[in-house]
Amino acid sequence: MSSKYLIPPLLAVTVLTGCGSDDESSPIDDNFLPVDETESAVPSVARQWNDVLLQGIRNDFARPTVHARNLFHTSAAMYDAWAAFSDVSSTYLLGKELLGSQCTYDDKISVENILTAREEAISYASYRLIQHRFKLSPDKDDTFEIADAFMQNLGYDIANESMDFSQGSAAALGNYIADCYIQYGFKDGSKEDILYSNIAYQPVNEPLQPELSGNPNISDMNRWQSLNLGTYIDQSGNEVDGAIEFLGPEWGQVAPFSLSEDDLTIHERDGFNYYVYHDPGMPPTYDGELAEQYKWNFALVSKWSSQLDPADGVLIDISPASQGNIDINTMPRNFVDMPQFYKEYAGGDIGKGYNLNPSTNEPYQPQMVPRGDYARVLAEFWADGPDSETPPGHWFVILNTVIEHADFERKFAGQGDELDALEFDVKAYFALGGAMHDSAITAWGIKGWYDYIRPVSSIRAMADLGQSTDDSLPSYHEDGIPLDDGLIELVTAEDPLAGNDGEHIGKIKVFAWKGPDYIQNPETDTAGVDWILAENWWPYQRPSFVTPPFAGYVSGHSTFSRAAAELMTELTGSAYFPGGMSGFEVNANEFLVFEQGPSVSMTLQWATYRDASDQCSLSRIWGGIHPPADDIPGRLMGEKIGKRAFSVANSYFKGER
Q1: Contact 106, 91 (CB under 8 A)
Q2: What is the spatial distance between Cα 352 and Cα 76, in angstroms, rounded to a whole number?
Q3: Is 183 helix (H, G, I), strand (E, B) or coil?
Q4: How far apart are CA 551 and CA 224, in angstroms?
Q5: Any idea where the DUF6851 domain is (predicted)?
Q6: CA angle, 368 then 372 then 373, to 5°
Q7: With contact defined as beta carbons under 8 Å apart, do 581 and 364 qualify?
Q8: Residue 239: pLDDT band by 50, 70, 90 thresholds?
Q9: How would you write 329-352 as a 3-class SS string?
């Protein structure tokens, strides 16, 4: 029996994150829908439709921007179906006009049972919108089978497509709300009508072929470079050829939820306006004033790759006793100060941990594990790539585990009386959906405009040039990679990497994860860490993925996660997870997908929502996906986005809009 569709306990979020799970069982499971009809046991209908939506996202292509929008629009539709019967709260789209899209609702319909009407309207709105948004999904049949089964379980007629709610039909109202969001979606700047395609952006670099050595075709070491993986099988089993396109470089033009025009800067390139909210400014460039910071950033990614070996003997405490508790005011506000924030040689950041669990008033118990296991687990747990619900969906999963915790009380902002499950859930999803949507617009607007390079491209390109540390040594080039004894060195004549004819003498070598060529069977093989030619450096990722199909700056993971953490702090009225700590159980030699491992069992632990967010950010450096320069700006703008989204959502709840 699959547990993939069960409502998860707090320590089993893995079944819904998609991380480390290769469950290929049927999408219909007898236990997907609760059979216990008691109020305390049955999650709200909004919660269950959120689970259906998350599974639809897992069955679709890995598109964080598109799915942040899907999460928001579906959550907003559910909220409108709930608020349609409220005497206090304002609707978002129902009864309003947004971007010239009218959703008329002059007179509230009269119903005998408001709860029943709300559940029916929410269900039809969710069902119709999911049908529309996933109709081109590669695994749409699985998604629709789940949605159909849920509707039938609820006793609703899926053939009822009426939008005439004048006689008080909650089903018709739900269908109407879904249609309003569908029509609005064609006007919101996402270009849904042309399958979210780019209309102006063009990459400046020729694609990188990572299976070949080096990066010989790059022309601009500051700009994003596509990948050409040859012929490969994508997440849905489809055969794909050719270079990968940039996903969402024009997403900054999508209509936001709570972003303000005061936060907006419009840049122009090639006759196209790039909308950038919370503009962080130019990242370090190899040929600019911050050239040394450029080199330090990308060299650090290679250095942290050396920490992915659980056999190196390094043990660290991964509990809240030592991890987390970073004051956002201590985060660097400029690139020059970043080396003081990150532990260049030990890995991690300046987080000092906590003395006591505020819920139990007891110390957090240390948990010593191999650093190489911890770093690899983080890289995979937070990856949120193929087969996952993507980063914005991951935070919905985390929110759901919080709500289901035995110690959690559904008090809005931690105050007043407990709300009923449906009211709390629709408000929570609406607020979090708005924050995730705005995070995607902000991060991808910046990605599209600054078009910044990824580590695999930069590390290989710098190494092709040589070393920039000592002009008296071989292979000197001012734009090359900086040497660092024991981590980044020159190949000598006596070196095992010199080659049969000495062809590699004078090249750059790095002490790093050896890459997918050393893994024949991920269930039994571990690539390990050793000296490799820098021209063959790989991020700790699957060979069919390598690095995300969009620019690095700023980190979407950092932006999404910090925004979600701030919003959940506001929503729950506490910075801490219920009980003062949340966690995720990892079993030895069962969790990792990229290679065998981890070598020991462990529990990922977070005291606060911000700690989970900060851990996510670090995971992207260990995974070889982002340098620090991508990370911190994402965290800082995520804080603003999360707080603003909560404030705007709350104004709807209070009927102020």
Answers
A1: no
A2: 39
A3: helix
A4: 5
A5: 76-207
A6: 65
A7: yes
A8: low
A9: HHCCCCHHHHHHCECCCCCCECCC
Task: Write down the residue that tokens 């995607």 correspond to.
Answer: 440
Contact 641, 278 (CB under 8 A): yes
In the block, which residue shows the tokens 């024009």?
A: 250
Residue 183 amino acid letter: Q
The 3-state secondary structure of 128-170, one letter per residue: HHHHHHCCCCCCHHHHHHHHHHHHHHHCCCCCCCCCCCCCCCH
Output b/e per residue, 343-373; b: 16+ Cβ within 10 A: ebeebbbebebbeebbeeeeebeebebbbbb
The encoded tokens of residue 53 equal 């939506």
Give the list of residues 6+ apart from residue 44 with CB closer than 8 angstroms, or none.
421, 422, 425, 426
Measured in residues, the chain has a length of 657
Q: Could you tell me how far CA 315 lies from the centroid of its own chain?
A: 28
- The 10s digit of each residue's pLDDT in 471-523 is 999 999 999 999 999 999 999 999 999 999 999 999 999 999 999 999 999 99
Q: What is the DSSP letter of 596?
A: S
- What average pLDDT does the segment 326-341 reach? 96
Strand partners, 608: 576
Structural domains of the chain in order of their starting residue, each with its CATH number: 43-197 (1.20.144), 200-657 (1.10.606)
Query: Which residues, listed in sequence order, are joined to residue 317 by a DSSP beta bridge?
Result: 368
pLDDT band at 14 (very low <50, low <70, confident <90, very high): very low
Q: What percent of the chain has pLDDT over 70?
A: 93
In angstroms, rounded to a whole number, what is the distance separating the alpha carbons of residues 379 and 357?
26
Calpha distance 63→138 (Å, rounded): 13
pTM greater than the 0.85 cutoff: yes
Q: In which band, very low, low, confident or very high, does the pLDDT at 386 lie, cut at 50, 70 and 90? A: confident
The encoded tokens of residue 12 equal: 């089993």
The number of CA neighbours under 13 Å toward the Cβ of 595 is: 28
149 class by beta-carbon count within 10 Å (0-12 exposed, 13-18 middle, 19+ buried): middle
CA distance 41 to 35: 9
Compute how many other C-beta atoms are within 10 angstroms of the C-beta atom of residue 455. Answer: 26
DSSP β-bridge partners for residue 357: 362
130-137 CB contacts, 8 Å cutoff, 24+ apart: 130/52, 130/53, 130/56, 130/74, 132/178, 132/182, 133/56, 133/70, 133/73, 133/74, 134/56, 134/59, 134/60, 136/195, 137/56, 137/59, 137/60, 137/61
| Average pLDDT in the chain | 92
β-strand pairing of 239-240 with 232-233: antiparallel
What are the b/e assignments for 590-601, b being 16+ CB within 10 Å? ebbbbbbbbbbe
Measured CA to CA, the distance from residue 147 to residue 198 in angstroms comes to: 31
